Amino acid sequence: MQHPSIPLPPNMSPPPTLPASPESVLDEGALARLRELDPDGRHGVVTRVLSTYEKALARQIEQMRAELDSPRGEVLGALAHTLKSSSASVGAVAFSRACEAFEQRMRQGATAQTHDVAELIRLAEAALAAVRTILRG
User: Fold this and answer.
1) Which end of the chain is more exposed for a tag (fewer CB within 10 A), N or C?
2) Is 45 helix (H, G, I), strand (E, B) or coil?
3) Looking at residue 16, what is its pLDDT?
4) Would you say the pTM of this structure is higher than 0.70?
């Protein structure tokens, strides 16, 4: 039985489907730069960096979710600021760019919108899933 689709609010577009592989979410060049820090893997640099990012990102996603009902630009702007560089360092380029754009809008005095926060969460969850795939792979 098919269920009727629920229409989205006019200011919200449907979320794109998540990429199927971690390689499509995380930039291989950034991961390669991390691997260069520990070429033979003896020190576990890549695993340690990705594990640290995974734990921090999981907490920050929860903080973003807590802001969905009544988004506070100052809180979300600070989160976006923190996430843009850490995400770039692990190769979550799309998420990093979204964080940078969001942070910039907040600095310019824009009001945080629920659909913007939802998009940040979607991109963060994609990055988190990709990192977890690599760590558990």
Assistant:
1) N
2) helix
3) 42
4) yes
Cα–Cα distance, 91 to 43 (Å, whole number): 20
Within a domain: 9: no
Domain that holds residue 87: 27-33+43-123
Ordered mean pLDDT values, 10 residues apiece, the chain (137 residues): 40 43 81 93 95 98 95 95 96 96 95 95 97 94
Domain count, the chain: 1
Rounded CA separation 16/130 (Å) = 16
In a domain, 11, yes or no: no
If we measure between CA atoms, which residue out of 130, 110, 92 comes closest to residue 120?
Answer: 92
| 64 is a domain residue | yes
Instruction: Say if CB 80 and CB 106 are below 8 A apart.
Output: yes
